[in-house]
Amino acid sequence: MKFLLVAAVASLGGLLFGYDTGVISGALPFIKTDFALAPAMQGVATAAVLLGATLGAAGAGIISDRFGRRRVILAVALLFVLGALGSAFAPSLVVLLAGRAVVGVAIGIASMLTPLYLAEIAPKAQRGAIVSLNQFCITFGILVSYLADYALTGASANWRWMLGLGAVPGTILFCGMLTLPESPRWLAGQGRIDDARAALRRTRANADVEPELAELRTDLLQQGGSVSSWPALFGHAGRRPLIIGVALAIFQQVTGINTVIYYAPGIFQNAGLSSASVAILATAGVGGVNVLMTVVAMRLMDSAGRRPLLLAGLAGMIVMLLVLAGSSYIGAKGSLAAITVASVALYVAFFAIGIGPVFWLLLSEIFPLAVRGRGMSIATVSNWGSNFVVTLVFPGVVAALGSATAFLIFGVLSIFAWLFTYIYVPETKGRSLEEIEAQLAA
To answer: pTM for the complete prediction?
Structure first.
């Protein structure tokens, strides 16, 4: 089986992640009308997915360590399908929120498990690009959701179609995962060395897999066997990766990216764009920038390295957030609305070459094998929990303090993120997962 096919199918979890988080930006104005939603309930409708994602991420590490990466991804694909169809056919707001929460549980598990699975099957020389394929699929899924929102704006029952289309890639993911191997590193952790060898051979073409298998065995012996317990995560080997993972998880959200993803049409309309459809189209243009710059990041990840991209991306985000704060303060409307659109596009571009893909890549690399599922689960919960809080309070902050102040707060938090990265985050380019583990434990 060709390795790129394995990676492409597994990355569909990222596409579903992107589609189901981005689609609400275009669907929300129509849901608001159909259900007569007050501003507070609009926040709840948006945050239902995030609450579900937080809960899903909380259990993802335990269940993936217990049952394996592949089987859990298969279950997640079914959740995506059920949640999408439940949302599309919802007869009431309560059912809609429940359907979106189910989608959120699937997103939370997939957001942690897809990069983990990709990292554990990828050769070390290609791991940066392969794991970043997940981030590409996330951004591509967001772009597809924007285009679907725009195309369906004038359709009957438009928001139902927007939400229901998520069932299509969910079905493809389920069927595709039936043909893929289990993670060789998870198999080795369970003592199934022969199965791990077979899985490596399926993803390494004609390469000799024995050296990689020997490295896996050595790592397992050093850790004392298979999957470890929660206390081991907070011990010497797991503590530093946990601090780095949780901090970057929080910084990825409190620097404001998902407020742009979810509320971009509203931001553009406030800047003076003429209609909801024009604002959605401008948002789709920003989504295109997100995809393009993620491709650039994929090309650079294994050459320029993780740390330089992270620092450069955060620096660019800081500048653009300050520009957005300034343009919002002076009230850039009409012809000056282009400043807002360009600033948002550049902000997203810098996110897409930096903390967007690099965070998920580093998260899949830094934890020891014995506690990798648990460590990634905690960091992913921190990510979705931060996302939930920021998304829920953003409309209120804008209403109370103005968008200029909101963007300024995000800019200041981005400065803290840059400083943390400069001081604490190591380079992992070109090292095997076992070598990274030894480096962080030293």
So the answer is: 0.78
